[in-house]
Specification:
Layout (H helix, E strand, L loop, with lengths): L1 H10 L3 E5 L4 H13 L4 E2 L4 H9 L6 E5 L6 H12 L3 E6 L5 H5 L2 E4 L12 H19 L5 H14 L4
Parallel strand pairs: 1-2, 1-3, 3-4, 4-5
Helix pairs in contact: 2-6, 3-4
């Protein structure tokens, strides 16, 4: 599933990254990383805009969903919309039999089963962020030098913002 996900991401016309609640931070991290290396990515925070973006997807586009439970209704609606448009769906979740996983072409599983005091969410998000980082590094280490060149160009521009 991981290698297949990488292939879908690097060939995508557009990547819609989505998460709800605090899972949005992991989805946004994916957007930042992918955009920085020249992949066409979006990550709207608003559910209505996520649906709007999903409704404009087409075959070859990718919906990247981040959801610990895999059961968030709004994300399921986004996935159903993208699926109807023939987009590929990749879900990062802790639950491979969840509703989101069942809608997905690829499921990348996390493993965060420890009881957290007061339902602490950091333990759930760290594995998701690690998967996003792994995908990003795998893309950079791939054969195509264009991603490294885009990263170097982005970094050069960002240096102008530093003292």
């Amino acid at each position: 599933m991981y290698e297949e996900s990488l292939s879908y991401i690097t060939r995508a016309g557009k990547i819609l990254s989505a998460g709800a609640g605090d899972a949005y931070t992991a989805a946004y991290s994916a957007y930042l990383k992918f955009s920085r290396i020249g992949l066409r990515a979006v990550c709207p925070a608003d559910f209505d805009v996520q649906i709007m973006e999903a409704s404009g997807m087409k075959r070859g586009d990718v919906l990247l969903l981040i959801s610990h439970s895999g059961s968030t209704r709004t994300l399921c609606q986004v996935a159903e919309t993208a699926k109807a448009k023939k987009a590929r769906i990749i879900t990062v979740t802790n639950y491979p039999l969840s509703p989101l996983a069942k809608l997905s072409d690829c499921v990348i599983r996390t493993a965060a089963f420890t009881k957290n005091p007061c339902n602490e969410t950091v333990a759930k998000r760290i594995p998701e962020l690690c998967i996003i980082e792994a995908l990003y590094i795998s893309i950079l280490q791939g054969r195509e030098e264009k991603y490294a060149k885009m990263l170097a160009a982005a970094n050069e521009e960002l240096r102008k913002n530093k003292f």
